[in-house]
Amino acid sequence: MAVYSTASLMLLLLLVFLNVTSGCGGGHGQGSGNNGGHGQGSGHGQVCGTTTAAPVSSQTPIHIVVTNSVTSGPSKTYSTFVSFRGILIGGMRRLQEADNTFTFTYTEDPNYGPFLQSVNGLHGNFSQETYWMLQVKLANGTTITPNVGIGCYIPNANDEIIFKYTSYASHP
Ligand code: B12
Ligand SMILES: *[C@@H]1O[C@H](CO)[C@@H](O)[C@H](O)[C@H]1NC(C)=O
Ligand SMILES: *[C@@H]1O[C@H](CO)[C@@H](O)[C@H](O)[C@H]1NC(C)=O
After folding, report:
1. What's the pLDDT tens digit per position in 3-52?
2. Pocket-testing residue among 117, 122, 127, 168, ligand 2, by greatest number of atoms within 8 A of Cβ
3. Domain segments of the chain: what residues?
4. What is the per-residue pLDDT across 107-116, written as a single tens digit (0 to 9) for each?
5. How far is the CA of 167 from the centre of ligand 2 (A)?
């Protein structure tokens, strides 16, 4: 019993630690409500016998749609996942390693983190006033333009992440 309690406490502390450190600057609550925070996927209450508990760090499935509003060319859709409360760029890295038809590059901004520079070989270019915009179509159908980049956005399950090659006129 004592062993179980200690394990539970450590798990809880771990989850709290992950929560605190996974957010980006300020943590506006953006992306919350994903998996309901505590409890989800954890092995709490698992005494013995039936072992159907989900892994502690479960997967949050997302889709990634690459689209071009400048040329109106065809879109490409991919599927990947982020870890529990994981950041978008983690899912992008996972996808890039698994699927060689998806590639991306980014630059590191000292204040805001990773700036998405190219997707599938197509680069945004400041002098041509083009860039990759990040939008998200939520599971309920609403499309939002996150006020953070790929290093800070925490996807919800079944988010459709949209990378839209576009020109500045569309900046929020
Ligand atoms: C202009 C601008 C842009 C331009 C920058 C290009 C250019 N040459 O002008 C464009 C249109 C490309 C842009 C895009 C985005 N932006 Co912007 N942008 C700004 C704005 C209005 C001014 C920045 C500026 O010129 N500062 C003055 C110069 C001298 O300082 P600087 O440090 O060199 O500025 C650079 C950085 O700000 C960088 N930058 C701009 N936006 C972003 C966003 C991210 C995530 C990163 C890493 C870097 C970055 O580009 C600037 C020029 O090199 C700021 C708001 C503000 N008032 O600061 C928002 C701002 C920085 N952007 C923001 C956001 C969210 C985005 C997008 C993620 C929006 C989206 N959902 O698509 C995208 C980036 C997507 C990607 N590809 O990664 C947020 C960042 C907040 C955060 N904590 O992450 C800000 C603060 C606005 C907001 N909504 O609150 N942006
Ligand atoms: C951006 O566009 C300008 C003007 O068309 C061009 O001269 C420059 O080489 C481009 N830069 C990159 C990195 O593609
Ligand atoms: C969808 O969910 C978002 C965030 O939870 C909310 O702001 C928006 O109003 C919802 N849209 C609809 C159509 O329910």
Report:
1. 444 444 443 333 334 333 334 644 333 433 333 344 333 334 334 445 56
2. 127
3. 59-170
4. 999 999 999 9
5. 14
What is the best residue among 118, 122, 128 to mutate for testing ligand 2's pocket, by most ligand atoms within 8 Å of CB? 128
The DSSP element (H or E) to which 61 belongs, if any, is: strand 59-68
In this prediction, residue 103 carries a pLDDT of 98
Residue carrying structure tokens 């939008």 = 135
Q: How far is 146 from 154, CA to CA, in rounded Å?
A: 10
The pTM of the full predicted model, rounded to 2 decimals, is 0.82
The CATH number of domain 59-170 is 2.170.130.30: yes
The finding on whether 38 has its CB within 6 A of some atom of ligand 2 is no
Pairwise CA distance, residues 163 & 130, whole Å: 13
